[in-house]
Amino acid sequence: MHTQNALVAQPNEHRDQDHSYRLIPSKIPANAKMPTDNGVEVKQSQMPGAGKGLFARVTFSPGEIVASVDRPLVTELEIDRMLDTCAWCCQRGATDPIERKTAASMGLPHGFTEVKSCTGCHRVAYCSRTCQSKAWKREHKYECKVISVEDLPPLPPGVRGAIKILGRLKADPDNEFIHVRKIMSLWPAGDPNGMSEIYRLNKKRFDDFQSWDKPPGSTLESHMPMDWTSDLSLEKWCLMCTMNNAIILSSVFDGVPLGIAFDPLISSANHSCDPNAVLVFNQPRHEIRALRKIKAGEEILISYIEPTNPFNVRQMQLEENYLFTCQCTKCLKGGNLETDEFLGHPENLDDEYRKLADKLIARHESKLSKFLMSDNESEAQKRLAAMEAEAYDVLENDQAGTGETKEAIEMCIGSKMWSWTYHNSVVVLPRNIFIQGSSTRHSGSASNYISRYFLHCTRKNRVINAWAVSTLVNVLCGTAHKELYQELAKGGVQLRVLYFGFLFYLHDHTPRIFRSDSPFARVTEITYKQIIAGVTYSETELKEKVQALGRHWRP
Ligand SMILES: C[S@@+](CC[C@H](N)C(=O)[O-])C[C@H]1O[C@@H](n2cnc3c(N)ncnc32)[C@H](O)[C@@H]1O
């Protein structure tokens, strides 16, 4: 047992110690053999303190596949997803009848998918026999008994991932052991002191680590596929990798968080808030695609988060979810007005919003520092930080009602501190209103929002966002939203034409980012064909209408 405690040091024990521990970055040994793919290699990153990174060995054009894996070393579902999502292909089957019906009416897979739980452990589920059998052969046989133990609470995805890797390595059917050992030299296991750092940055992650360390008498230990004491460093390494280096996965159709993936090659790609590549999740294939031209020798940088969020929100999300302070070129410039285009000048707040902001400073006192660039910010800057804290509070609150959401939008836009064109809180908040049922009071803002969003999507190569908004626009074209539809038409936004704009955009651009046989590309293509077959206008006529609508918005 004592060896386990070395891994899960109590937070207070290390508070005053020097945290020389870095969660990831390490110097690459000169003779190390890197995971390679034809066009990329793993090398030391030029980003300060970022450790190793993925580099192009050849030049890539926009849209080209830079690196891919058919399946990451581990893919693990969130605890909440274990019984409604296939553990192999990660396709969710909606369980809420209304969501199911709506999704089915849009041809989305979560409206049709049925998953059945494994009869051995009843802890994971599959959407088909094919998925189940592939999963069993590759990995589930190593974890089924371990996780089925009665009274054992569901284990966090990182811990389940580590159990699977260890099981596979012990049996080693694919001669993975030597390969993984080599990779291990590149992925430091971390120092136990680092647990206090994890505790500081993400309490939940710390608790998740603890679930590996079951109290004496727990049956978990006896079912572990590998002896704790004989190979502690391997266990530590597996756990650190799956907990701290995994990529967070969410559904491409609706953004629902699904789980995590860890893979030595894909997980070597560092983050940038100004990425040159994107990680595409094609259930379960993972591909890194170039977003712009990448020259041979350039570092391949993907974004782990939404890169158009404001500086401090990006920093906060990266610290909390990925436990590092971003050193990318965009963040190194800081959160000034140039890079945070959506902020107006803090001194220009008018009286009404200054009063409101002063109240919000008191309400968000404990969170304010997260939204400030430094400790000695001016009062004016504090007001903006408080307003930002309020907007993100409403955005992240599942219980927030329409009234609250509208007030937050009014504050953002009315104060002239945010613009409609960025994918930050302001853009997402109105979407929530539409989803909540909508009203016509904000139709002016709504038309502004949808049309600008369309331009934003089409200019910024945002296929997934375009898909999300197109499904929303489709819903708004239905009879339940007649009033809003008519109101928008008065303001010059014909939603149905706009919907065609999205469809054409998706039809043209999806194959550049997704493989044509991927679930996402299949759904967008089927939707396109069905809709086009059902209209009396020719494609050329429809495209002219879309263009005319577009001309109306252009500045
Ligand atoms: C998925 S791993 C990427 C590979 C990693 N650089 C390594 O050496 O193993 C993510 C980790 O890389 C580092 N990292 C990635 N992007 C970074 C950035 N923009 N700034 C600072 N550190 C970064 C952080 O330590 C982060 O936890």
Automatic annotation (TrEMBL):
Keyword Zinc-finger among record annotations: yes
InterPro entries according to UniProt: H3K4_H4K5_MeTrfase, SET_dom, SET_dom_sf, Znf_MYND
GO CC aspect terms: nucleus
Pfam family, one: zf-MYND
Domain SET: 38-305
Coiled coil: none
GO molecular function: zinc ion binding
Entry annotated with the keyword Nuclease: no
UniProt keywords, alphabetically: Metal-binding, Zinc, Zinc-finger
Residue stretches making up the MYND-type domain: 86-144
The protein's name in its UniProt record: Suppressor of anucleate metulae protein B
